[in-house]
Specification:
Elements lengths: L2 E5 L3 H13 L3 E5 L2 H11 L3 E5 L7 H11 L5 E5 L4 H9 L4 E4 L4 H9 L4 H5 L5 H7 L1 H8 L2 H9 L1 H6 L4 H11 L10 E4 L3 H13 L4 E4 L2 H10 L4 E5 L7 H10 L5 E6 L4 H9 L2 E6 L4 H16 L1
Parallel strand pairs: 1-2, 1-3, 3-4, 4-5, 6-7, 6-8, 8-9, 9-10
């Protein structure tokens, strides 16, 4: 486990990174401005710092300079949606470990970050004793078992022929159950009644490398789920016709166990609580910020991987 400092004036982005990195077993502290970041850096001496470039009062380059006076070898990664070659050059001269765009997928950012974490945080996971023990029992079982089973099947050879007749009846129900299993798909299902909003979000998320399928009402969404189970569903609570909560109930009734991100325009506590009880992984306000939605999707997918 590593202590990681996340510095960004966007609280939503800090919270998302804290959730994702925390799920990987790291201790995460967050700061929303440069001065707070320097105080936390001095207190916690983090093993890694994720630093936003553009912040009010003190930007990322200035914070990085101050960090270098505290720890010349500290691992610091700069994230920015507004980077430039000149700023990246300054950061490189100050020894930044990496300079990445916020538009990258979160798993890409985390993979890049893990390359610079101390070896102890990465080597802890693979335990050596279990594999050694799992290899030894099978041979011992195989050496002791051959003699007894050889004689027993000889006595049961006659009844085994009689058992062949009922066996087809046992296999038939298995074949009947097979069609009921809906295949899984890697796509994300977007359920949004407004065609303009749906098209815009689909185009935006597709550019982020996500496989998006769209349904414009509840019945179309349920028909889709009958054919394929998406990895994740983005569901507008204010659908025309069948409402979002009704669709969510039907999805759970169809044994859909994936994550559901709810989009809602009104903060109805009763509806929100029902959505949470039915397994909503996130609830976003409308009009939805596509950047925020993209991050929420990435977090949900990463958490689903475990």
């Amino acid at each position: 486990m590593a202590t990681i400092l996340v510095v960004d004036d966007e609280r939503v982005f800090c919270d998302l990174l804290k959730t994702v990195l925390g799920s990987h077993g790291h201790e995460v502290v967050t700061a929303y401005n440069g001065r707070e970041a320097l105080d936390l850096f001095s207190q916690h001496h983090p093993q890694f710092t994720l630093l936003d470039l553009r912040m009010p009062e003190m930007n990322g380059i200035e914070v990085l300079r101050k960090i270098r006076t505290i720890d010349a070898d500290a691992a610091v990664m700069i994230l920015s949606a507004w980077g430039s070659d000149a700023l990246e050059k300054q950061a490189r001269q100050l020894g930044v470990t990496d300079f990445l765009s916020k538009t990258l997928a979160l798993d890409t950012i985390i993979t890049s970050m893990q390359r610079f974490l101390p070896p102890t945080t990465q080597v802890v996971t693979p335990p050596s004793p279990p594999p050694v023990q799992t290899k030894s029992p099978p041979p011992s079982v195989q050496e002791k078992s051959p003699a007894p089973p050889v004689e027993k099947p000889k006595e049961r050879s006659a009844p085994s022929e009689q058992a062949t007749s009922p066996s087809p009846s046992v296999e038939k129900p298995k074949e009947k159950n097979a069609p009921s299993k809906v295949p899984e798909t890697d796509c994300i299902l977007l359920i949004e009644s407004n065609a303009d909003v749906s098209n815009y979000l689909k185009q935006f998320l597709t550019k982020r490398g996500l496989d998006i399928e769209a349904a414009h009402d509840g019945s179309a969404a349920l028909q889709f789920v009958n054919k394929a189970m998406p990895r994740l569903i983005v569901l507008n609570m204010d659908l025309t016709g069948m409402g979002g909560l009704a669709v969510m109930r039907e999805l759970r009734a169809k044994k859909y166990t994936g994550g559901i991100i709810m989009l809602c325009s009104a903060e109805d506590e009763t509806s929100l609580n029902l959505a949470i009880d039915m397994g909503s992984v996130d609830i976003l306000g409308k009009p939805v910020d596509p950047e925020r939605l993209a991050l929420a999707i990435q977090v949900s997918l990463l958490l689903a991987k475990g």
